Structure formats: C-alpha cells, structure tokens
C-alpha cells in the first residue's frame, strides 16, 4: 500500500516520501512501520507485481 501511494503522491523520491510523510503523519494508518532500510529490502520483492499493477491500471 505504501509503495502504491508513493507513486500517486507526487513525491520525487521514495526516501523523502517515507521519512517525511509516512513516518511523521501516517502512523495512524500504518501503526507497525518498519525502518527505511528494511522497507527497501522488501520493495525488491514487490517490484515486478507493482510494475504489472501500474501498467494495467493506466490502461
């Protein structure tokens, strides 16, 4: 969910989005936030499904 909302947010880079918006203001929606380093590791496994989602959503 965080990765998809990043792509819809207008932020230019994920680190700024995650550290400035998610970690500060979205803790009520994501109560069990993980560190930025850990989310980068997890994002590697969602890269292909995310590309599929984004390409089929735009059609």
Q: What fraction strand?
A: under 5%
Average pLDDT confidence is: 84
Q: Kindly state the number of beta strands.
A: 0
Radius of gyration: 12 Å
Protein name: Mobile element protein
Q: Mind explaining what this structure looks like?
A:
With 59 residues, this protein is mainly α. The protein is 71% helix and 0% strand. The longest helix has 22 residues, at 36-57. It is globular and about 30 Å long. The protein starts with a helix and ends with a helix.
Brief overview:
With 59 residues, this protein is mainly α. Helix content is 71%, strand content 0%. The chain has one domain (2-57).
Identify the notable features of this structure and list them briefly.
59 residues; mainly alpha; globular
Layout of secondary structure:
Layout: H1 2-9, H2 14-25, H3 36-57
Helix pairs in contact: 1-2
């Amino acid at each position: 969910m965080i990765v998809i909302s990043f792509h819809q947010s207008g932020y230019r880079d994920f680190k700024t989005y995650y550290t400035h918006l998610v970690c500060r203001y979205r803790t009520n929606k994501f109560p069990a936030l993980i560190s930025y380093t850990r989310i980068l590791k997890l994002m590697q496994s969602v890269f292909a499904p995310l590309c599929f989602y984004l390409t089929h959503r735009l059609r």
